[in-house]
Amino acid sequence: MTEALLIVDLQHDFASPDGSMAVEGGMAAAQVMLEWYGWAKHREIPIIMSRDWHPETHSSFKQYGGQWPAHCVQNTRGAMFTIPPSDDVIVITKGTDATADQYSAFHDDLAAILRAKGVQRLYVGGLATDYCVKATVLDALAELFHVSLIREGMRAVEGTGEMAGKEMIKAGATFAMDSAEAQGILDDISYKDYRFILHEERGELWLHIQYDRLDTFTGIDGIGYARPWHISRAQTETGLVKTAFAAVKLVEEHEAMEAFKYRDVRPFDPHMPLAALIRAERTKEAFQQ
Ligand SMILES: [Zn+2]
Predict the structure, then answer these.
(1) Cβ 81 vs Cβ 11: under 8 Å
(2) In percent, how much of the chain has pLDDT > 90?
(3) How far apart are CA 65 and CA 99, in angstroms?
(4) How far apart (Å, rounded) are the C-alpha atoms in residues 65 and 100?
(5) What is the pLDDT of residue 286?
(6) Cα 150 to middle of ligand 1, angstroms
(7) Class of domain 3-176
(8) Which listed residue (101, 132, 134, 284) is catalytic?
(9) What does the pLDDT read at residue 57?
(10) Is 62 assigned a catalytic role?
(11) How far, in Å, is the centroid of ligand 1 from the Cα of 234?
C-alpha cells in the first residue's frame, strides 16, 4: 500500500511557545513529527505540509469579528513552518480568503494529487488535534484514504483532544503504531519461553524473537534469535499480536526441521504444529537417503 505523510499546520504561531496561538506541547509534537519527516524522507514517500496563510484582515481574527487572535499572517515569522520543508514537499496553502476560515488541508487538488501518486494511506500529525487535524482527517476519510493518526505528533487547543480523537477513530481512522506502545503489547504476550523484542531503526519497527533452544548439533542449551520481522506502522494491536504468533510458528517449524536433521529421535512436543511435524518427517527421510 502506498503511503504518505501529512503534517498539518506545524507553524510557529501554533507550535512555538511564543506563538500567538501557542498550543501546549506544540514543540514536543514538532519533535515527533520531525522524526516522522526523517522516516518519510528515508522511505522516499510523499510528504504533504499544510499551512494556515491568512491575510492581515482575516475574518477569523478577533479584531475582525472572529474567535482567534491574529495568527499565521502571510509572510510573517508566525506563519513559517517549524520544520522547513525541502523542495519536493507538497505544500498546501489554506485560509487565504479573508472572508472564510479553512481548517482542512483537503481543498484544491490535494485528493487528486494523492491519488495520482497512488497514495492509499496517510500518516497524519500536526496542530491542532481538535481543529485543523480533525477537519483534515475527516475529509481524508471521506475521500476514502486510510488514515493512521500519529498520536504523539499532535496536540489540541482544548485539553488532550480526546473527544476529537474519538471522533476521528469513529469515522474510521486508526492510531499509528508507536514503538513504546508496541513493546508494551508484546510484553503482555506470554507464550512458552519466547520473548518478543521490538526495535526501531530510522522510524521502521522490527520484531525480534528470542527463545531458549537446545543446539541440536552440539546438544548445548543456548538462546536462539529469529530473523527480524518488519512491523508496519499502520499495524493495529490485534495485527501485531497475530504477527508475533505467526513468527513464533515459523520459528517452531524451523526448529523442528533442525532437530530432525541431526538426530534420529522424534522429540515429542505437543505444541509442534502438524505441518511442521510432516515437514520435519520429510526432511528426516531426505537426510537419511
Ligand atoms: Zn487560521
Answers:
(1) yes
(2) 62
(3) 11
(4) 12
(5) 56
(6) 22
(7) alpha beta
(8) 132
(9) 95
(10) no
(11) 30
**Where does residue 178 rank: exposed (0-12), middle (13-18), buried (19+ CB within 10 A)?**
middle
What integer pLDDT is reported at residue 36 of this predicted model? 95
Q: What is the pLDDT of residue 137?
A: 98
**Annotation marks residue 9 as catalytic:** yes
pLDDT (tens digit per residue) in 158-209:
999 999 999 999 999 999 998 888 999 999 887 888 889 998 888 889 998 8
Output Rg (C-alpha) for the chain, integer angstroms.
Answer: 25
Q: Where in the chain is the domain with CATH 3.40.50.850?
A: 3-176
15-38, pLDDT tens digit by residue?
999 999 999 999 999 999 999 999
Between CA 280 and CA 265 the distance in angstroms is 11
State yes or no: is 72 an active-site residue. Answer: no
Mean pLDDT of the chain: 87
Distance CA 250, CA 36 (A): 31
For ligand 1, the distance from its centroid to the CA atom of residue 81, given in whole angstroms, is 14
At 215, give phi and psi (nearest 5°). Answer: -70, 115
pLDDT digits (tens, 9 = 90+) for 243-288: 898 888 888 887 776 655 544 444 444 455 555 555 555 555 555 5
Q: Output the CA 99–ligand 1 centroid distance in Å.
A: 12
Residues found in the chain = 289
Catalytic residue of the set 94, 101, 134, 284: 94
Ligand 1 center from residue 147 Cα (angstroms): 23
Phi, psi of 232 (to 5 degrees): -65, 140
